[in-house]
Specification:
alpha/beta; 15 strands; Dihydrodipicolinate Reductase, domain 2; Rossmann fold; 6-stranded parallel β-sheet; 14 helices; 3 domains; 9-stranded mixed β-sheet; globular
């Protein structure tokens, strides 16, 4: 059993105490046979897949797997009965049968010997438990970013995946898109010269993905509340926000290892991101995209910063939505490269920009620009310039399935996901403690700062623990 992630040192900074207070802490088998029956390297056999989580990313990921003929989705799990029914309807309608089995408890799904792999799309506070348990059951895993809610949980996932020899693909799908691949190859092939600076622009504020905020704000109009980050415990607004969870949603299990807090509709499905008890805000939601691409261009998939300092703007620590609304992180990387990761700062453009002694290149979703016009031509670099050829993937889910068969690493394996998220985690820690932190990338420890080191982990609520 993994030891509980409880802090052992005395706390001194008031914002550390506030942070902990706010976060706390009879199977129906399908007729198809799993590929494991024939050996994992049998390329002609169909891969059987179970999906856990049918909220924001789950449906899209699953539909991509449904489109692949050598994969069959045989099981789905969700704690919301309506979401689960939506998953079963989508999957069974696709296959024109009723073979997909529904589950309330992910552990029952993982016990199935006929399932080869799982797709995990659950809130961040569940990543560590689900991923380590799936690895223990020898399931290959397609898991969402960031890798986990804390660096400690990420380390546990890396260990579980590697010890159990399972294939891992992270949902950092930009690596499977041509513009990001081309931009990273421009940098890796030295076309911009020696890289001196990198700028990573991420979103800021909060976004009502679930569309549930207007309903509550209408109730709060008479109180002059215009933003859910203004709603705090003990206020009249808080009393109006809290309700009993619906009968078809198992909120008690959903909160899982995190601190028990009242049910508020506006911070569960999709909007769990905006509360540090369950998510990491825009910073952690996006670092596994543009931060990941920045690392790819620099060949830093197993590297990280040495120093990080950061500043952010936060609602009250116990507010309904309490994640940073604006932030800026300055990090020092190997080879004297300076990194800026920012959200809400106009001088840092959304996307990833590498700046070197001989030019620059920038890429974002739907955008590509460079200092040299010829670099912007075509979907890929001319072959004669590709001395360094990066891993190519024609589709993120397709790449995962191919690697399940070949047992070769995916385009975003677990170590890559771990290191891509680390600067986001360290930036958040630096903001919370209010000082620069030094990071040893080899030992993965914060140097000389007990208070900051405590934030590498978080308390777990019994009976939950990492596998």
């Amino acid at each position: 059993m993994q030891k509980k992630s409880t802090a052992a040192r005395p706390q001194s900074a008031w914002n550390r105490r506030q942070f902990l207070k706010a976060t706390g802490a009879a199977l129906a088998l399908p007729t198809i046979l799993p590929s494991s029956v024939f050996g994992q390297n049998a390329p002609s056999k169909r891969i059987t897949l179970g999906v856990v989580g049918w909220g924001m990313q789950g449906p899209g990921n699953t539909k991509s797997f449904l489109a692949e003929k050598d994969c069959q989705v045989v099981a789905a799990c969700d704690l919301d009965k309506n979401h689960l029914q939506g998953a079963l309807d989508t999957i069974n309608d696709h296959y024109q049968n009723q073979d997909c089995q529904g589950y309330h408890d992910f552990r029952e799904l993982l016990e199935r010997k006929d399932i080869d792999a799982v797709m995990l799309a659950v809130p961040d506070h569940w990543h560590g438990i689900l991923a380590t348990e799936a690895a223990k059951h020898k399931k290959d895993i397609y898991g969402e970013k960031p890798l986990a809610r804390t660096i400690f949980e990420q380390q546990a996932i890396v260990k579980a995946v590697e010890e159990n020899n399972v294939i891992w693909q992270t949902g950092s799908w930009q690596r499977s898109q041509a513009p990001f691949h081309k931009a990273a190859e421009i940098v890796r092939n030295g076309l911009i010269g020696k890289v001196t600076r990198v700028e990573v622009g991420l979103p800021a504020g909060h976004h009502d993905f679930a569309g549930t905020a207007p309903e509550l704000l209408q109730k709060l109009a008479a109180l002059q509340i215009k933003d859910l980050s203004q709603v705090e415990p003990g206020s009249e607004a808080w009393k109006l926000a809290v309700s009993e969870p619906p009968a078809d949603f198992d909120f008690a299990t959903w909160i899982g290892p995190s601190k028990v807090e009242p049910y508020i509709k506006q911070r569960v499905h999709m909007n769990w991101r905006w509360n540090y008890n369950t998510g990491g805000g825009q910073l952690l939601d996006w670092i596994g995209h543009h931060g990941d691409i920045a690392h790819w261009g620099l060949d830093f998939d197993r590297s990280g910063p040495s120093e990080v300092e950061a500043h952010g703007e936060f609602p009250a620590p116990n507010a309904l939505w309490n994640t940073a609304t604006k932030y800026r992180i300055e990090a020092k990387y190997p080879q004297d490269i300076s990194f800026t990761i920012a959200g809400g700062h106009s001088d840092i453009r959304s996307g990833t920009k590498w700046i070197g002694t001989d030019g620059w290149v920038w890429v974002d979703r739907g955008g590509f620009d460079a200092s040299h016009p010829e670099w912007k031509k075509g979907k890929s670099l001319p072959e004669e310039l590709r001395k360094v050829k990066l891993y190519e993937s024609k589709g993120h889910q397709r790449n995962f399935l191919d690697c399940v068969k070949s047992r070769k690493p995916t385009i975003t394996p677990v170590q890559t996901a771990h290191h891509s998220a680390i600067p986001g985690h360290l930036g958040l820690i630096a903001m919370l403690v209010g000082r620069k932190i030094k990071w040893d990338a080899q030992t993965e420890t914060i140097l000389g700062d007990a208070g900051a080191s405590d934030l590498l982990t978080r308390p777990y609520r019994a009976p939950w623990h990492l596998a």
